[in-house]
């Protein structure tokens, strides 16, 4: 028979948890490895304490563990089971127990042996795998796992729903089964290069469902490597991006479409120019870029209200669309401004220019009728030509707008074609307009007062206020140069208000200085009286 001390020396040499208890489940012995594992330093700390106290609170959550021990004591057999315990410092461990009753042992007061192996890592791995599987099955994202040869091992419910296949139809096959033939070959080359380098790849694949339907999948594929760095699995997670793509396309269309008329807006107009310019560059043809401005359109809103003004804009757009070919482009650029892109063979000859002008004027000439009212409009129309006048959409539209402004300066309701000299003059006007917006704030305006005398007596009967612009670099600018620009832009309203305020301030100053009351004549724009 092996002496007790020898037996305990053997137990102490084992990397196993060895516990000996009596029939009342009190601890008589724990080996050194077991004491360290449980968080104790010497046997006296656990000697004759209840096993449930030594193994901690988690052991109490496994009543079958203690039931097995009692059953061992009654029937004298060996049992295997797993149960948790809590160490002295609060760690939770899973132990695989072997429980044995040794009736022939020379320590009859403690005949039950418990030999345990720490399987916490294995248990955690299993729990993690189960948790991952549960998460993967319930996530709304599609999850597919393949082996290193890219054979499908797992596909979650979302992946199956997205593709229309059952699990047994997918597992064991290659992901190429989802291919539609519509994904660019360059996409697959990029994917293979990334995965071959051991890095993740993200992109979009145009895949095909079991029923033949096509969908866009936004997907990320990651290689999973072992401890030696070799790829063991590929993990793919994706989502059906078809609806998002459709939404993006609708938003893109919305961003290039005028909400009121349904025509292209300025963004859409310029985008269409790029498309047409690319097309006609190979066809040796030209593009007529047309700008239309409705003279005095604000009077419609003022007299009839914005509701009828909006209806008029819609009707104008419809007439323009009816007057051109289906391949041409009609846009509402802003407010009462419209733009057209007309693909014309040999536009530089002038014949087509005359024909287009007549067609557009004829379309807009008949009165517009609604609410038992008829409205006549006065369109000012300007033309520029691609490539003769420029090769960029914004530049050509500015050229056409310059021609329109020339029509308006000549009285409106007419047609003009862009000329380079006109463009230079208009560029100067645009520069002047930019500076004119700041004249009141920068206090660059001033009034000169011209005396008015009686022809009979020669006596002073009043003053006329004459507006001047004292430009810091260009000197004194006469009103003939900047008043027309202020009229066209609407800045004349603010300038006129300044003139009235300044004239009144000067009259007050004269009175305070002891001069008798005097009349001061001020020139106002017709716009002021329309607003009155």
Overview of the molecule:
With 532 residues, this protein is an alpha+beta fold. The protein folds into four domains: 4-124, PAS domain (Beta-Lactamase), CATH 3.30.450; 139-245, Beta-Lactamase (2-Layer Sandwich), CATH 3.30.450.20; 256-418, 2-Layer Sandwich (Alpha-Beta Plaits); 434-531, EAL domain (TIM Barrel). Helix content is 41%, strand content 27%. It has helices at 4-12, 32-38, 51-55, 57-60, 63-75, 120-138, 157-163, 167-170, 185-196, 242-255, 266-280, 298-304, 306-323, 351-364, 393-409, 420-436, 479-489, 492-512, 526-531, and strands at residues 17-21, 27-30, 79-86, 92-101, 112-118, 142-147, 152-155, 201-208, 214-225, 231-240, 286-294, 329-334, 337-344, 368-370, 373-375, 379-386, 415-417, 445-453, 460-471, 475-477, 520-522. A five-stranded antiparallel beta sheet has the order 2-1-5-4-3. Helix 12 (298-304) packs across helix 13. The longest helix is centred in the C-terminal third of the chain and has 21 residues, at 492-512. The protein is elongated, with a radius of gyration of 46 Å. The protein starts with a helix and ends with a helix. The mean pLDDT is 83.
CATH fold group of the largest domain: Alpha-Beta Plaits
Assess the beta-strand content as a share of residues.
Answer: 25-35%
What's the number of domains? Answer: 4
Name the average pLDDT: 83
CATH superfamily of the largest domain: Reverse transcriptase/Diguanylate cyclase domain
Roughly how many Å is the radius of gyration?
46 Å
**Structural class category:** alpha+beta
So how many helices?
A: 19
Please tell me what the overall shape is: elongated
Strand order of the largest sheet: 2-1-5-4-3
Named at the architecture level, the CATH assignment of the largest domain is: 2-Layer Sandwich
Estimated helix fraction: 40-55%
CATH class of the largest domain: Alpha Beta
